[in-house]
Amino acid sequence: MIDIDKYLEKIAAFVADKKTPIVDLIAVQTKDPFKVLVATIMSARTKDEVTAAASARLFAKAETPAELDRLAEEEIATLIKPVGFFHSKAKYLRELPTALSKFGGQVPAEIDELVTLPGVGRKTANLVRAVAFDLPAICVDTHVHRIMNIWGYVTTKTPLETEMALRKILPPRHWLTVNGLLVAFGQSLCKPVSPHCDECPLTDCPKIGVRPRKKPTEKRSAMLTTSNTLKFVSWNVNGIRAVEKKGFVDIVKAFDADIFAVQETKAQADQLSEELKNIAGYRSFWHSAERKGYSGVGIYSKMPPLSAREGIGIAEFDSEGRVLTLEFADFYVSSIYFPNSAEELKRLDFKLRFDEALQEFALGLAEKKPVALCGDFNVAHKPIDLTYPEKNRKFAGYTPEECAWMDRFLAAGFVDTFRLFNQESGQYTWWSFRSNARAKNIGWRIDYFCVDAKSRDRVQMASIHPEIIGSDHCPVSIEFRPGK
Ligand code: SF4
User: Fold this and answer.
1) What residues in the chain have per-residue pLDDT under 50?
2) Which numbered atom of ligand 1 lies nearest the CA of 210?
3) Which of 24, 170, 221, 266 has a beta carbon 3.0–4.6 Å from 166's, enabling a disulfide?
4) Could you tell me which CATH number the domain at 4-188 has?
């Protein structure tokens, strides 16, 4: 077991000159639980500087519940835009004064009362109790959950489990401060992707499940030789313009992958910002749907491809912008967004026809050279790949027909790379936005990297990255050895 006092002391020294998380800052500046609560509601899935600017605009108009009650929902949305999910948060904030009236117009300090307020989950409630009231609470967000597991201080699967475990073992003197310290530490050094272990003061860190960054001087050149391994990442971003506001470009840079494929971009190429199209070190390629704001795939590549092919040559599928393939000297890589069978399975037939056509297309590629197929397959293959298999047998993404196609696809000569390395349950890539499903890890594994069977041994590692937020899906990745 690590020495938690020593660890947190070293981190406090390390982050002393780092920026303070925005809700701590607002607490220090105002001592006002209402402002802390409002800023905390806005801060979820939003960069601190965006929350700070939105808070300033909103508080200039409404510093109290009574003043907030005078604003219309649309006005609140305009003031807080572009915080993540600003429409939903505007609705929560519009409802907040009425909800607070049950508590005499004051923000309550108890967790059970705080979680009755609109937009307030357990994490927000703990943060408000700790920051605004200086009362015992452990706010466990993704940074605290992730870093405590990296240290082996807890072994848990969800932030809620981490909170419960920490309540038993973390000395109370750290309850109030641990969140602020680990958020600043997680944002600056122990990052979700490629943490900077080479600069870390915790020299005896167990680094459980961590792949540290390579020191900049050790970086590979962009043009790789046959002995090198390439890193491929795939992410259904559920709207690339929306995820841009949640730090997408920084996430791509942090992964430092050779290929970064995206799906469900929901944008035409000419609707993308220059920052999105021209991430330093990459060329980007896009295949969009004819219908605006729908479907769409893309690939960022460090290496110039021999060719880029949009679609699979069948108009009814290609008009929906579902497949983009880059050809390199030693391999193909395809970014694929499989159709969703939709409510009442209205598009099941369409999806199954796409599945078969895509399989034919992929077999054609695999005859020529190794192929990596990545993306949102919109199917959980086996019971292990979703939390509630029995309940979902008749629903899109887990019908017997869709699972049978996945069986046929693998039997035809493709490999689900993640299951080469991991046979555990609870490994998901998509969670509903409803019912706090992600925090409870009620999810589905529907995003895959598949390779042709002959390339099985080229895959050195396959991973899921649930710590990366911004979409209802998380990224998946492989390390792939091209060449002979
Ligand atoms: S050594 Fe690496 S993994 Fe461990 S705390 Fe430091 S940055 Fe994080």
Assistant:
1) 216-227
2) 3
3) 170
4) 1.10.340.30
